[in-house]
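Figure S4 source data
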Amino acid sequence: MARRLRLGTRGSLLALTQSRWVEAQLVAHHPDLSVELVVIRTTGDRITDVPLARLGGKGLFIKEIEEALLRGEVDLAVHSLKDMPAELPPGLVLGAFPVREDWRDAFLSHRWASLAEIPPGGRVGTGSLRRRVQILHQRPDLEVVPLRGNVDTRLKKLETENLDAIILAAAGLKRLGLGHLPRRYLSAGEMLPAISQGALALEVRAEAEGLLELVRPLDHYPTRVAVTAERAFLARLEGGCLVPVAALGELEGDTLTLTALIGDPEGRKVVKDRVSGPPEEAARLGTALAERLLAAGGREILAALYLGEKAG
């Protein structure tokens, strides 16, 4: 008799595309498996006209899915890992990290080939505080316009809101077959990505040992090592919704390198550094880099941000 699995997912085209990919991978490893996609609407999906930071930031796209997992209404959840807070609710674990898609950001424009070409006063759309701080740090003469909605909505706003450019995650574009649209993909030196950008996470109940075994073949070691370091960095900072942070872990041979930054929302001050070490020490490297950036000025940036958040 075929085994059945209920897979919880958001209902956006990108989320469904990612979940169907996971479904295909699971069935390839377990031919007797029958997978049912269960669409769950999240807070982040319902409210699209308010900046994510004002709504509470991370967790907005996963809370209702995790609640369904805990109630036993679904067996497995597929998340974009960058949407997940550093700490999980009690009773849930991340069972596998499939191979990571492109971690870069993508620059899209009908007029300009790069951020440097945009004239002073130009308008760049993004819904990300992390991108905002890096754009303004490089180009304080530009206007950063808040941008929300699915990929199709954001692409339309490039024209309807008279924007010079928008910046989107490369992974989403490539998964949707739109990888040909960007004028250029931004290097880590130009735009350090969000924590775990391009990576997926498969979340299950901690006591569901059978499900942990089921998803284990999808786990990709280099991805696991990289995102472990990035999320340890985030956890040490207790990264809230108003904190522009970025990090990228890269495994080459037996060396893991983690690059990260903390910045203020206006791009006036950015602290950035990197550490390297063995992959088995990924979590320690993430914590150590967070401590280093805090000591280099990140603590003052965070203190000012949290003070402003409380005042607001």
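Figure S5 source data
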Amino acid sequence: MEIQQPPLMSSFDHVPVGTMVDWNTNPPSSGPHYPIWAAFQAYTTPVPRGYYVHDLEHGAIDFLYNCGSAGCPEVVSTFQAASDSLPDDPVCAQTGGGVRVRTVITPDPLIPTKVAAVAWGWLYLADCADLPTLEQFAKAHYGQGREDLCNPGTTAF
């Protein structure tokens, strides 16, 4: 397991949906992103990076996995447990949108490891899903994006 704090990218601009962005980390932990973000939930198909980077800007933790076509339900289950371990988010409670915490769980076939967690300006990379360290990462970096928002996102990609 490796935790990194790469430099934030200098541009946080919104770019049109579908724009190819050259981020400075893999997976991306800051930088240009789409004008709409992914809804805070678990997905079975990859959320395009431009959406989930916007989630990071809103203080989310993104849990990413690369398990190929076979999938890895044990990793997803561990990610869900890490998300569930976060305390209720008061910012989300104020919006009344039914979201308890700002997390996204999604496959990402482009990450260099089987497991990754990302927060604004932080990366967690590993070959296996270790619940104690994922919980620690999520609790340490949750809610620290540039915009402290918990508004509903999209599920239409």
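The chain is about 25% helix and 15% strand. Residues 2-6+27-141 form a domain with the Glutaredoxin fold (CATH 3.40.30).
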